[in-house]
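Training component of the fellowship. As part of building independent skills, the fellow (R.M.) carried out the full modelling exercise for a liganded target. The chosen ligand was protoporphyrin IX containing FE. The inputs are recorded below so that the supervisory panel can assess the work.
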Amino acid sequence: MARSALFSTRWSLGCRDYFALTKPKVVALILLTAVVGMLLTPTVPNLLQVFTATLGIGMMAGGAAAINHVLDRRIDIKMARTHHRPVAQGRVQSGSALAFAFVLSGVGLTILLLWVNALTAWLTLASLLGYAVVYTVWLKRATPQNIVIGGLAGAMPPLLGWTAVTGEFHGHALLLVMIIFAWTPPHFWALAIHRRDDYAKAGVPMLPVTHGIEFTKTCVLLYTLLLTLVCLLPWVVGMSGLLYLVGVSLLNLRFIQWAWRLKFRPSAQTALQCFHFSISHLMWLFVLLLADHWINYG
Ligand code: HEM
Ligand SMILES: CC(C)=CCC/C(C)=C/CC/C(C)=C/COP(=O)(O)OP(=O)(O)O
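Fellow's submitted model of the complex:
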């Protein structure tokens, strides 16, 4: 009896570690943006289409995150924020994590190829390689612009959602990609300011390490202003209506307020608060896009 209890505790701890490898909260927000991309298309998708596309994209995004855990294990162990991670700690062996990542991504790719369409499958694979290989192996270690360029991989999901339903590119989907692309620098640099010493210790050339905290705060503010302009584009091109315009303007004003406070009136927690707000900003923005679409088009 005691033996089987021990086995089941170990099993559940193991499952928890494998689940953590997929960066579930990040993937959850990625999937929200992908699903909204599916639901904003002129064609109304059926539930099975939405389910298979979400499953395939989610499995590949989770697989990308697991590969990142393996390739970054030596960096992760040096940083307070990440040192507890399963591969960094050796609770999951690199080989096992890689096998898990390949199976997860392989099944995801197969689902997309068989039940969604080839365009979405290959674009999702490109996003996976963009994050797990181009960003993690090269950009992250090479340049403080790492997250600006690498951000493209994380910005792709609304386009993946759109192509999953329509099988083709559309300017409206590219606008959604542009929003996440412009959002990524203030999202990440706010956290990087808070964790500057961690990145310096691990030798990762993030902007606050290479160019200092003040310069990074200026960049956060400028990118937040740029994001504000980009966020208006769906309304400018007639893709979204008044509900979106009013809602996103309020979200943007709040983001600018955080970025302004970070630059000119910071407390010890402002950078972290700005980072947390960035996540709510993107989540509510996509909820608004959907609500506005349903109000206007039913
Ligand atoms: C290259 C682009 C990006 C970089 C460098 C980046 C970086 C980060 C980092 C370092 C964290 C902290 C993770 C942790 O504490 O474990 C984080 C958290 C988060 N990111 Fe990003 N991110 C990027 C893109 C995205 C995208 C595209 C999304 C979703 C659409 C996203 C959503 C989130 C969420 C939801 C969290 C909170 C996770 C949690 O609380 O555990 N990020 N991001
Ligand atoms: C297939 C597909 C849609 C792929 C999506 C790619 C993906 C999971 C993007 C998330 C970006 C992210 C969490 C970056 C974290 O940076 P980091 O790895 O430097 O942060 P860390 O220090 O927390 O590991």
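The panel noted the following from the submitted structure. DSSP finds 15 helices and no strands in the chain. The chain has a mean pLDDT of 97.
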